[in-house]
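Following the same procedure, sequence and fold were stored together, as reproduced here.

>
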Amino acid sequence: MKTDKAALVLACMAVVIGIGSTSGPVKEMLAQLKPQDALAVKAALAAEHSSKDLRAQVEQKAAELNVPPVDAAVDRVWKAIPGYNGLEVDVEATYRNSLQQVPGEGLKLVYRQTKPKISLNDLGANPIYRGNPAKPMVAFMINVAWGNEYIKPMLDILDEEQVKVTFFLDGSWLSKNRELAAEMLKRGHEMENHAYTHPNMSTLSRARATAEIQKTQMLLKESLGVTNQWFAPPSGDFDQETVEIAAALGLKTVLWTLDTVDWRKPSPESVVAKISAKAEPGTLVLMHPTASTSKALRGMIRAVKAKGLRLGTVSQTLSPDRIMPDDVE
């Protein structure tokens, strides 16, 4: 029975093919299908050609826009300068995304950062005075050993302006002001090491210098849960041994690029003018909780932003992470 059905089907197919190859409506129907098949082939070839054009376009943009990373280096004047990540177009990701785009949307590039070959960690025990000059970021360093009455007003301004800073805490101050320090941390600011008794570090024995840094390092951990990364020598006084001691404790020694000299009680207007004139990419600005700085803080923030620079913590400013435009994926 199954054999008979199979034979019947084959016979019908033979008839159809035979008719279609000579004349009649079947031949006309088959003839109509052939141009459609040709169009389908042409469309496939066009799509393949278009895909090749798209990939070539992406590769060309990558060649034009890729930026190489900058290695960290020791400068004769500025000492250790951090590296800065490069930027390159992710050709495969951009190509895949573009295939799914609606026609006419334009090419949306996907970028990835590329790391320098040499980082700060490779430079040994050297002080740091600034961030990479290619990175459009500025950090405010606020050294705290006194000035409690100005801290909360400054915190409120920082909140309002949506800015995070790095506070370098004198250990003896921290031991007496743990609640205030916890409030500073709670508001999202970075907490770092300013020795314990605000000594001139270069005058100390190795044992005493070690104790000054280590005691505050431990207090930051015990009272705030902070893992210390940076050490700012009190009064900017240090020597190479100081830097090496800090490095042995896992800390990098950081100073400043630009000093408000707010302890001399300058007018707030003069402080803002100084920052506006001299802040540039990678600048570390030193200040304290003083009347001058408290009144100048908002103006300093806006002066930096007006120059197209972002404000970040010391860690953010000294990291190699690239500042990415808002429209970059």
